[in-house]
Specification:
The chain is an alpha/beta fold and 541 residues long. It contains 14 helices and 27 strands. An eight-stranded parallel β-barrel has the order 1-2-3-4-5-6-8-9, surrounded by five helices. The chain has a four-stranded antiparallel β-sheet with strand order 14-13-16-17. A four-stranded antiparallel β-sheet has the order 18-19-26-22, with no helix packed on it. It is globular and about 70 Å long. The chain binds (3S,4R)-3-hydroxy-2-oxopiperidin-4-yl beta-D-xylopyranoside.
Amino acid sequence: MGLLATFLLPTVPAEASAPLRTHAASKGKFIGAALATSPLSNETAYRNIAATEFNQITAENAMKWDATEPNQNQFNFSGADAIVNFATQNNQQVHGHTLIWHQQTPGWVQGLGASAMRSAIQNHISQVVGRYADNPAVVSWDVVNEVFEENGSMRSSFWYNTLGQSYIADAFRAARAADPDARLCINDYNVEGINAKSTAMYNLVSSLRQQGVPVDCVGFQGHLAIQYGFPNDLQQNLERFAALGVQVRITELDIRMQMPRNSSKDATQATYYRNVINACLAVTACAGVTIWGFTDKYSWVPDTFGGEGAALIYDENYQQKASYTAVHDALAGGTGGNDTTPPTTPGTPTSSNVTSNSATLSWSASTDSGGSGLAGYNVYREQGATDTLLGQSTTASINLTGLTPDTQYQVYVRARDGAGNLSGNSPAVTFTTSEGPVGGGGCTATGTVQTQWQNGYVVQPVTVTNTGTSAVNGWTVTFTLPSGHTLAGSWNASLTVSGQTVTARNAGYNGNLAPNASTTFGFQVNRPNGNTQTPSGYTCA
Ligand code: XIL
């Protein structure tokens, strides 16, 4: 319901430190999160953040076909209703995701012949969309999801192979009939930049609209990764779709990295988040941005992309990350009216706890008098013409991680305000990281989940590689078990557990590694029923 609601949100000024949704609303945009039903009913911290920070939500799984119609004409709306009720209580809009997709659709649908499949689509859409047609919280739907191959041809899904391209227009018409006021979207991934796939999407949307098919909106999923670079033509791409007369939105934003996290990767990730928000803010037809989750505790990334993770804006302990600040500051940009006054310059940092790959810096805080308020600090390494951003912090100290052993760092700090003004450079502090592990080492470890079941999994192999230039005669790998998980066994290494931290030391026979040589070990874990997490991020020393 409420076709115009997202375009016509009133703009009201927001306090600099306000939650994300307050700033987004003041810009006439939504900021959303995909929510999972189990932590939503079980975890207060999850619920509180979801309610406080976001004015839009999407069901991560609860509205998909396998959840809503697992057997033909037997509908189950328990999860979907829980999401919609939460949104109603918290004055949030719901984006329905998703009606027609080639994944998470039950086998009974996939096996139907053409005319039975057409009827099943009509019935499914009329029941699911119809259920919420009069509910003011539910404002939009992903009618079709991921209909293209990477080269821009139609995906050869069971939908396409049974029905040809006609299923797309049919689905949109059925959704319009079921709720004439809902905004109807087509959604896909790898369409953020201008490329073969996004151009195919552009052509399809254009031709459907010419035929009078009710396509109101285009969703750009936004599953990005810092190691693949930022799609710098995102704004331009959104603009070309907007020129077709459709609304655009970022629907599933997450920005993953190869684990382990460090402050420099976090800073790059924060920049990517800021860029996405800024692109949406710059395009009038962009309704808002939905993040695919919000806490790294619940993210599809570690389960889907081996060795990658930490893609969201809160860590596993619900602490805000640099990426949160980036989203916040981008949404709050201009809050101080025309604040052009930078914060005061921070004091000289002092270094402490310097190890082979990390260091703590603290400095005396800055103040901001320009109106937008102090937002945080950027920490740079002095390196001649282009200094590297080592990390960002919202407080007057930072723990730098991922540093290179046995290396001198000259580091300075700049304060940042809510309008993006940067202070002068603080005086620099110089410190030198200690030598790495004996043996001139450096090693890496990556773990692969070999198999998993309801309440357990096996990680095999964990591959340990000597990345140094000389041989090592022992190695130590550490990793963190998700909460509630317990070690059940291990092989080819000796494992000790403290809290959730596991330390794996080489066995007698696999400690010696020549440069570039690898060895492996494995382990098995028990986890609570229904929990789908696995460890991510193995540190080797
Ligand atoms: C993912 C969910 O996050 C996972 O929990 C689930 O196991 C698989 O689907 N594109 C989409 C989303 O449109 O529905 C997908 O969500 C991620 C990719």
